[in-house]
Amino acid sequence: MNKALKVILITLLVLNSMVLLGQIWPEGAPPFSGIINILTLTFNLFLFVLLLFKNKNK
User: Fold this and answer.
1) pLDDT at residue 34 in the model
2) Would you list the DSSP string of 1-58?
C-alpha cells in the first residue's frame, strides 16, 4: 500500500468516525459538522472512483 492511499484511508477513517459520532450523539456535534459531512462524502466518492479505475486497469 503506497503512502498516499494510506493517508487517504486514515483521513476517511477519522472523518467517518466524526460523522458517526454526530449521528449517535447529535447534541454534541460541532458547528462545522455540515462541512465534515460534505468532506466525508467527497473523499468517499474519490476513493471509490480511484479503486474502480484501479481495478478496471488490471
Assistant:
1) 87
2) --HHHHHHHHHHHHHHHHHHHHHH-GGG--TTHHHHHHHHHHHHHHHHHHHHHHHHT-
